[in-house]
Write a structure and sequence with these properties.
The structure is a homodimer of 412-residue chains.
Chain A (H helix, E strand, L loop, with lengths): L1 E7 L1 H4 L6 H12 L3 E8 L3 H11 L5 E5 L10 H9 L3 E3 L1 H10 L7 H4 L3 E3 L3 E3 L8 E6 L2 E6 L3 H18 L3 E10 L3 H7 L1 H6 L4 E7 L2 E10 L2 H19 L3 E4 L4 H11 L4 E5 L5 H7 L8 E7 L2 H8 L3 H7 L4 H15 L3 E7 L14 E8 L2 E8 L4 H25 L2
Parallel strand pairs in A: 1-2, 1-3, 3-8, 13-14, 13-15
Antiparallel strand pairs in A: 4-5, 6-7, 7-8, 9-11, 9-12, 10-11, 15-16, 16-17
Helix pairs in contact in A: 2-7, 3-4, 11-16
């Protein structure tokens, strides 16, 4: 299958919202082995939508559209698509029933009623989070997928669409992602270049972003089990060389893996943050169930707070400065004791834009770790702006803790 | 001017990164009064880039392209654009000099050298954050703007481009944004519908996102002073009705305005966070210079931490629960005393997905504020997932503090 994506909406076109739908749809489809040629954004304009469809079907046999399925007169994507395929719309009774339930049997306006209209050939996709159902239209060997614009409605509906689309493909495509931190994309590719070059099934695609890298292994086969059996030995080969950087797979995040392992090992966590200023705690608390391991944190942003709250010896600041391995270790050790946990992390660094020196330039960060009474530290030099330096520090701290838990459990 | 945007890059096309550049460019251009017809994303493929340029120039006289200016063989956007305009590239000496400085006089590879090649008719745009200069190419009355893909390089370069482009426009367009929190988009529009309908210069466009709303006033005139004189009386009219929600203009954020006002009023800030778990502190620390007002914070995630760290009376928990106005007030008051600041904020709430009850459902949040010894609180019910509830709590807390500072200064 060759696919193009057309996102419809004046807010997208004028830049008032960022087009996350195109990325979401593209990533899912490319994972299924669908070829992607182009993404287009047009406004809610019948002529532009028609032009975009015409252009897309010159090379594609599948067009996925998002946006413009709402109840107002501006919303014309479905009408434009049906016009393009010369298909008439009739009332789709099951969708009307769902609308009635949605509106709790209050009267349904003619505007909402139009959302229940579809060509009789269409496959209608239910929407559990809004009033606009989606659809797959089909004519000859061409298909148009219609989805609403709000991501929380589109995401679950697109999963259903993918299941249907994979039925049109010969065989199935299965993807597995290996997620890594602590290695750059080009160095990662260098290490496994021979594996990448020698593999055609599964294919191996590297991705980078936000300081992390990942490899997506995509196998095609007749069954899921067969696809998995093609992926596993290649995954094994990759793990032998890159295992130390791989922290998880697929939907795992550094913070979800950390929280998961802390809970499994019955470890409790506290934090003492300076340069990250609460971002490390906030990242942990983002994970539902974090309260099973996370007790609390101290944001000791000023030196006085480090001294008063954590009882760190003032001499350390005079002798080594607040951004030093000595202060990082003292912070980690003190917060463990103060809050009474098995494990703690601390951060102290220069996030910029000011505060850098020749000896300790902007981006200098020390991370302290206290683990069952043993304290260690690591130094990093991160590049980028204030936000980037703080985000990298959080990820580095999580990875440092993860490695410690893993080595502890492997040595058992 | 009529503009189309073409973003080039396989990572965009396959969805491994979200296209924030298109939104950024679109928003800036539409603010300048440029008409936008289409955004396109294509891979690093000479034929597709040429097709996209051809299609774009059927209706546009300006095409802004991002991505594909890097040093590798994959990066072919500049070459494709020059081919399209049939312009030859020669070495651009000033860019070569900049590259030499960038590489600290280490030898420059032939790959990087190609980044200093441009048609002699081009206006070259310096890049202070990377090796790829941008350019404005021109042929007859058509223009192509070339910009690198990384947002931190593109943003400042595009500001320079906008200045040059505005010179090609008849008259100028000036925009001013009024930023609001605490009101929904549809209610805001309702309140000022008559003003919006009666205005053609400036135009008034509402935008919503991330729990905030904004109005963009765009005036066209011969000079900046004239445009401003058209905007000001309309802004005044709007402020009379919506003033209580407006926290700032243009690049202001809630956190930047809060930090700014705290510093100006010589107030010091501390935080006690439960449900936000460090997100409030982290949002404050994001602002460079936050250390001038922010001293530190306590993330008292568990009840034990609230009791031990903040010495909150255990009876409050038994009588009212951890998520209550009483605990919020006690947290705010205690952290002010503990850290020794004039001002503090506290948060306690149920961010979900678990933990909700009939009486206190998921989304119930109490925010405490201690301001020069006086303690107050507010209750909120936020909708959405864990992330959304925590983000809204942070914004609501910042707005609550802002209102307090303003009322304090107005009553002087």
């Amino acid at each position: 299958m060759v696919c193009e994506i057309i996102c419809v909406g004046t807010e997208l076109l004028l830049g008032s919202i960022v087009n996350t739908n195109a990325a979401f749809i593209s990533e899912r489809l490319s994972g299924m082995g669908v070829s992607l040629y182009k993404q287009t954004v047009v406004g809610d304009n019948a002529i532009r939508i028609k032009d975009a469809l015409q252009a897309a079907f010159q090379s594609a046999d599948l067009v996925v559209m998002s946006g413009g399925l709402g109840p107002t007169q501006d919303d014309i994507t479905k009408e434009a698509a049906c016009n393009f395929f010369e298909q008439e719309m009739i009332l789709h009774e099951p969708s009307l029933e769902r609308l009635k339930t949605y509106f709790n049997d209050r009267p349904i306006s003619k505007f909402n009623l139009k959302q229940a209209m579809f060509p009789k050939e269409a496959i209608v996709i239910d929407n559990n989070n809004g009033t606009a159902p989606g659809a797959i239209l089909q004519k000859d060997k061409k298909r148009i997928v219609l989805l609403p614009g709000p991501p929380n409605e589109l995401h679950p509906m697109f999963e259903k669409v993918c299941k249907i689309l994979s039925g049109y493909q010969r065989g199935i495509f299965l993807s597995k992602e290996l997620k890594m931190f602590g290695i750059g994309e080009s160095y990662m590719v260098e290490i496994i270049e021979d594996i990448i070059d020698s593999q055609t099934n599964p294919t191996i695609a590297p991705y980078a972003g936000d300081g992390e890298v990942k490899l997506r292994l995509t196998a095609s086969a007749d069954t899921e089990a067969e696809a998995l059996s093609k992926i596993l030995p290649v995954e094994q080969q990759i793990r032998e060389r890159l295992g130390q950087y791989i922290y998880g797979t697929n939907d795992d995040t550094l913070e979800s893996v950390v929280v998961d392992k802390l809970v499994k090992c019955s470890l409790t966590l506290s934090l003492a943050e300076s340069c990250t200023g609460g971002l490390l705690a906030s990242t942990i608390v983002d994970i539902p169930g974090a309260s099973e391991t996370f007790r609390g944190g101290l944001i000791t942003y000023s030196n006085e707070e480090k001294i008063n709250r954590l009882q760190i010896d003032e001499k350390l600041f005079e002798q080594y400065g607040a951004v030093s391995s000595q202060v990082a270790e003292a912070m980690a050790s003190a917060v463990c004791t103060a809050i009474g946990t098995n494990v703690s992390l601390s951060t102290t660094g220069i996030a910029g834009p000011g505060g850098g020196t020749a000896e300790k330039p902007v981006g200098t960060v020390f991370i302290g770790l206290c683990y069952n009474g043993q304290t260690t530290w690591k130094q990093f030099f991160f590049k980028g702006n204030r936000k980037k330096i703080r985000t990298r520090t959080v990820k580095a701290a999580l990875k440092m803790l993860l490695d410690r838990i893993d080595s502890d459990n492997n040595s058992d």
